[in-house]
Design brief:
Radius of gyration: 23 Å
Structural class: mainly alpha
Distance between the termini: 47 Å
Helix content: 40-55%
Order of helices and strands: HEHEHHEHHHHHEHEHHHHH
Amino acid sequence: MSDNSISDDLNNPAETAVKRILTGIKPTGTLHLGNYVGAIRPAIESIQNSDHEAFFFLADYHGIIGCHDPAVIHESTKSIAATWLACGLDPERVTFYRQSDVPEIPELAWILNCSCAKGLMNRAHAYKASVDINVDNGVDPDQGVTMGLFGYPVLMAADILMFNATHVPVGRDQIQHIEMARDIAGTFNHRYKPLFTLPKAVVDDDTPLLTGLDGRKMSKSYGNTIPLFGELNPQVSPEKQMHKAIMKIVTNSQLPAEAKNPDDSAIFEIYKAFATPEEIAAMRAQFAAGIGWGDAKQALFEKINTEIAPFRERYLELMANPKQLEEILQMGADKAGRHSRKQLDKTRRAIGIRPLAKLK
C-alpha cells in the first residue's frame, strides 16, 4: 500500500468483524492440473467446516481483456463453472456467480475510477510489462494496450470492495492488485465515507506449484499443461487425454534399474501433490531402486486418476446439462445482488447521487 494510504483503523467499516473470502476465476480456456492443485482444491478445502462467508465468481468481464473470441469466453465460462461445481464447490454454502450478472460491479468500477490516480495504474505490473515489450521492439509504448488492460486493477478492486471481502486468496503475482484495491478503498473512504473494507491478500506458500511437461512451471501460456477434465470438444476421452499428457512428461535418459533422484523429477513432484506421506515414501524408495520412467508415469496417472475420476464424471454430467449450470449461476447472482444493490446504493449516496426528493 502506498505511503499516502489511510490507516486500517480509520477506513475499515464495521462489517470487517465478519471474515469474508472472495475468489475470482477468469474464463479463458480450460483448467489444468496446476489450477486444481494450486487454486481449486485448497479454496474448496478452506471453506469446508468453516462459518466464513465465501464468494466465488466467474470473471468474464476480466476474460475479454485478453480474449476476443466470443466462443472461447462462452464455452470457457461453461467449462469452468462445471469444473468448480464438480470438484465440490457447494453453491448453497457459498455465493457462486458470474461477474456479468451483477451489473452493480462495473458501475462501482466507474465510481472508483473517479477516485483512482492514473499514476497508480501506471505502476501495474501487466501494463508495465506490455509497455516494456513495446519499447524493446521499438514501437509505440502503448501499442496494443487497451483501457481494459490499463484499468484492470480498478475492476478487480470493484469485485472485491463490492462485497467488502476481508481476505482474497491470490498468487504472489497478484498481491499488487490487492494492495491497489486497498489504496483505492482508502482514498474513497477518506474522501467520502468509510464504506469499504481494506482487503488482505492471502498467499499460501505451502500450496505446491506444479512443474509442466517440459520442466517449466505448468502454464497454458507455455502449452505444457496436464488437462484436468480434457480440452473443450475433445476427439478422445478426457481420461485418455490426461494419460497421454502424463506420458509426455520430459525425463532424462536413465534406464530402468538405474537409481534415480526423485527430487529432480517432475513426475515425483506432481505425485507428491496427490499422495499420502506413506505413498510418497514408497515412491521415493522405488526411484532409488530404479523404477522405469514409463512405470513411474503410469503410477502417477493412476494416483491422479483415483482422485479426479469421480469429479470428471460429475463434470461431464454438468457439461451435458447447461440449463442446470445456468440455474445455479442465476441463484448465485440473486444472492450476490442482495449484497451489491445495498452497497452500490450506499456508495452512490455517499458521492451525492441520490433522489432530489421523495415522491409519493
